Amino acid sequence: MASGSAEQNKIKYNKWEQNGIIMAGGNGQGNELNQLNCPEGIFIDPYNNVFIADSMNHRIIEWKCHSNKGRVVAGGNGQGNRTDQLSRPSDVLIDKQNNSLIISDRDNRRVIRCSYQNEIKQQILISDIDSFGLSMDKNGFIYVSDLKNNEVRRWKEGDERGTIVAGGHGKGNDLNQLNGPTFIFVDQDDSLYISDWGNHRVMKWRKNAEEGIVVAGGNNWGTSLKQVSFPQGVIVDHLGQIYATDGGIDRVMCWCEGNTEGEIVVGGNGWGEELNHLNGISALSFDDEENLYVADHHNHRILKYEKCFN
């Protein structure tokens, strides 16, 4: 099989425009309202406003569609553990039922709820957890990946420990183990998808399963279409196609469950700052029109790739 740029050029998956549009940041690394500093998780609301875990600015920032600057909705008061502070937040989602944000406050080892409509108030939902990625199912259960314990737990309001739904058998690469789980996604069937960062694979755990199945990668680190390197962002579309970031060579890949090879969606052109380049990508998301959003971590920006209709 061919490898490297020749393979990538051959396989390029042209469902999205290959040049991204800067939706947030892109004005250098910094803490002004038109800047980001190593963005991690992102969430797109129904109005195409982007909520960003602006990690090294220790804040969650809302960037309204077509705006040239954002609005701080949580944190932004320096790094710390006060109720008005965050420390390297890694993910964020909107709890529509409670009209609030759920935030993985990573270095404070907690998950918090934040009401952002009027006065900013923070409530600790989960403490003493090495949280990274978040997801929520249709019943309002919160899923949290735990980097240190190599597991994913499901929580409901009032839980003290939650329920292990993936991993929890120590660090490893067996089908019942994980190695550095990062971002996660729960589909309508309550199947859980996990970016298993240290194992260079994406895992799917069906509801109540004792072990997962590999749905992307799992062939060590590398550049072939059978591999995904240091994945972080993961999301599944309405057709069940799995999208994952390949942090090793700055590309987003699409995998169909059961296929041994993925396809390159965007990126794969080497790292850089041009609009067809990425640099250290983290989270992924779609809007309601199936445009793709990518947190371009080391370029300190969020890129939007418009869906092609021709």
UniProtKB/TrEMBL annotation:
Listed SUPFAM superfamilies: NHL repeat
GO molecular function term, any single one: zinc ion binding
Protein name, entry field: Uncharacterized protein
Organism whose genome encodes this protein: Adineta steineri
